[in-house]
Design a protein that fits this description.
Helix 1 runs parallel beside helix 3 and helix 2 runs antiparallel to helix 3. The chain has a domain of 38 residues. The radius of gyration is 16 Å and the shape is globular. The two termini are 22 Å apart. By secondary structure, it is mainly alpha-helical. It has four helices and no strands. It is 67% helix and 0% strand.
């Protein structure tokens, strides 16, 4: 018997990357986030070509969707003047969830 995860992350819709890129372009952080997303996407596309798997592309969409969804909460936290010196890197949190 093989060990299977309790849940499998949902596969993003085929147009999810295009919609996500449009959402990133509309965000106030577009100047830094769009190039970073495009770099991650290009790297994942290359990985997908070599592995014949869409998993790297799906991971990029899930990661950037989570970043975009968390942005308002992060903004509110920082605007509140809270101490963020003991924070975690988002990539550590996302890696723990996948």
């Amino acid at each position: 018997m093989s060990v299977q995860p309790d849940h499998t992350p949902a596969t993003p819709a085929p147009a999810a990357a295009a919609q996500l890129l449009a959402d990133l372009r509309a965000d106030r952080r577009a100047g830094t986030w769009v190039p970073a997303f495009e770099q991650d996407w290009a790297r994942a596309l290359d990985d997908a070509r070599h592995s014949y798997s869409l998993a790297p592309l799906n991971d990029v969409v899930r990661t950037w969707t989570a970043r975009l969804a968390a942005a308002p909460a992060v903004d509110a936290f920082l605007a509140g003047g809270c101490d963020d010196s003991d924070g975690l890197d988002l990539d550590q949190v996302l890696d723990a969830r996948t």
